[in-house]
Amino acid sequence: MNVPSQGSIRIYSVSGQLVQELSWQPTDLLASGNNSPHGDLPYNLRTKEGLDLGSGLYLYVLTPSGATANGKVARGKFVVIR
């Protein structure tokens, strides 16, 4: 939610394995409804091999790009519960 208009996100398992990498452009985002340069990026919770992510903790690294990139990288975690 509320990702920059252009960038990439890498998703890792807690063991450090890269499970997915997504890149997007402004046209790929769903509008967040507040006329900001940010939006919501849909993600189907699948690995790069097309398998469903299993239940567990995952880490992400979000890197903005393009004209609005400020050089800051966001890191965080999320949980999948099935």
Detailed description of the structure:
This protein has 82 residues and is mainly β. Helix content is 0%, strand content 41%. It has no helices and six strands. The chain has strands at residues 7-13, 18-24, 30-31, 39-40, 56-64, 74-80. The protein has a four-stranded antiparallel sheet, with no helix packed on it. It has a two-stranded antiparallel ribbon with strand order 3-4. β1 (7-13) and β2 form a beta hairpin. It is globular, with a radius of gyration of 13 Å. The two termini are 20 Å apart.
Structural class comes to: mainly beta
**First-to-last CA distance:** 20 Å
Radius of gyration: 13 Å
Share of residues in strands? 35-45%
For the biggest β-sheet, the strand order reads 2-1-5-6
Helix content: under 10%
Low-confidence stretches: none
Largest β sheet strand count, sense and barrel closure: 4 strands, antiparallel
Mean pLDDT: 88
Give the CA-based shape: globular
Compressed to H and E, one letter per element, the order equals EEEEEE
Per DSSP, the total helix count is 0
Give me the count of strands. Answer: 6
Task: Supply database-style keywords.
four-stranded antiparallel beta sheet, single chain, 82 residues, mainly beta, two-stranded antiparallel sheet
Topology:
Blueprint: E1 7-13, E2 18-24, E3 30-31, E4 39-40, E5 56-64, E6 74-80
Antiparallel strand pairs: 1-2, 1-5, 3-4, 5-6
Short description, anyone?
The chain has 82 residues and is an all-beta fold. It is built from no helices and 6 strands.
